[in-house]
Write a structure and sequence with these properties.
- Helix 7 packs across helix 9 and helix 9 packs parallel to helix 10.
- The N and C termini lie close together (about 5 Å).
- This protein is an alpha/beta fold and about 350 residues long.
- The strands form 4 sheets. The chain has a 9-stranded mixed sheet. Strands 2-1-3-4-5-17 form a 6-stranded mixed sheet, sandwiched between helices. A two-stranded antiparallel sheet has the order 7-8.
- It has 10 helices and 19 strands.
């Protein structure tokens, strides 16, 4: 696995918009404030041509222009790390317009984003053996003040921190709006993970529960993962064989999927062989949190199928569309320690 250089004290932060740009509120103002905050931290900026664009369908610009921008800015020596402006809907359509050979032979660079950006954060390790960061997009860095998770994402980019713990509260309903674009996370709900071991929910009390598992981290947004599955960009089987000795921790979360769609996604990945050599699962709170349909909830949607692997399944972790989120290094070796209701994820870059 190739690991990029971390952001230096006066390093240049690049921005690209392969999915949505920051052309409307609250993202426009938030992105502008993020830039000012990064400048105050001593960084220069390299802003891509699509960052404020809104001409595309589900993305910032045409697939051709988005593919060109991502290729150019990832391969450019003018910036040291690259942060996506935002998530969106149809980043998949830019993939055939990427210069795959040029990206694969470029010096590795940290690319950070989540949601629709799974189209790149997942492909970097599986196609090019290059680690990436599944974490908030650029506009989130404009909030005032920074939530601890935003500071964690920045500290990871800087290489200051490689071990992270879950956060005590999460946001069920955001207060961020066009009128309040710099509003921080409205974290009001107490975080509580649910652990399943040996195919059933762990019966131990929160004071007694303690276990650890490790493997190479891979995953992202399920909406995007199942869309990539079976395409020419699906090189997962070969990736799994290359790192089979490490085993894998799959981290997953969902945006638009209801509980039945989540279950279908799990079934599809399972029957495609993606969970071969799995050592554990980390599942974030889905955007449909609390939904139940015909007796199926967000937990059984996952655990009924994944219990066959007899590995730890940790649910409702800080990951994805209901913030905050622990920054995940996709492609890195990871160790997960569960102690009661607390979890810690540590990365080993080898």
């Amino acid at each position: 696995m190739r690991y990029p250089k971390f952001l230096s004290e006066n390093g240049v932060i690049g921005f690209a918009a392969p999915s949505f740009g920051c052309n409307i509120e609250p993202y426009y103002t938030a992105f502008g404030n993020a830039q000012e905050k990064f400048k105050r931290l001593g960084h220069s900026l390299d802003i891509g041509p699509n960052c404020y664009a809104g001409e595309g369908i589900g993305i910032s610009n045409t697939p051709e222009k988005c593919g060109q921008e991502l290729t150019d800015y990832y391969c450019s020596e003018a910036n040291n790390v690259l942060i996506s402006c935002g998530g969106g809907e149809l980043m998949c359509e830019i993939l055939e317009h990427l210069d795959l050979e040029r990206i694969g032979t470029a010096a590795p660079k940290w690319y950070m984003g989540y949601s629709d950006n799974t189209n790149f954060t997942f492909l970097l390790p599986t196609l090019w053996d290059t680690a990436s960061i599944y974490a908030p997009c650029a506009a989130a860095f404009g909030m005032e003040p920074w939530h601890a998770s935003i500071q964690d994402a920045y500290d990871l980019l800087k290489g200051r921190k490689l071990s992270f713990r879950g956060y005590p509260l999460w946001e069920k309903e955001s207060l961020k709006s066009e009128e309040n674009p710099l509003e921080p996370y409205h974290a009001t709900e107490a975080s509580k993970i649910r652990c399943y071991t040996e195919g059933k929910e762990n019966p131990l009390s929160t004071e007694e529960a303690s276990f650890e598992f490790s493997g190479r981290l891979i995953g992202g947004c399920m909406d995007i993962l199942v869309n990539l599955l079976g395409t020419s960009f699906d090189r997962v089987p070969a990736f799994l064989e290359r790192y089979r000795e490490d085993g894998f921790i799959w981290f997953m979360e969902s945006c638009d999927l209801n509980v039945f769609a989540i279950r279908r996604a799990i079934w599809q990945m399972q029957h495609a062989g993606w969970f071969k050599y799995v050592k554990g699962f980390l599942v974030g709170r889905p955007l449909c949190f609390g939904q139940e349909m015909m007796g199926l909830d967000q937990y059984r949607a996952v655990t009924d199928l994944l219990s066959v692997y007899q590995v730890p399944i940790v649910m409702d972790v800080d990951l994805g569309h209901l913030p905050p989120m622990v920054p995940m290094v996709c492609g890195a070796l990871g160790s997960v320690r569960i102690t009661g209701n607390q979890y810690e994820i540590s990365y080993l870059l080898k």
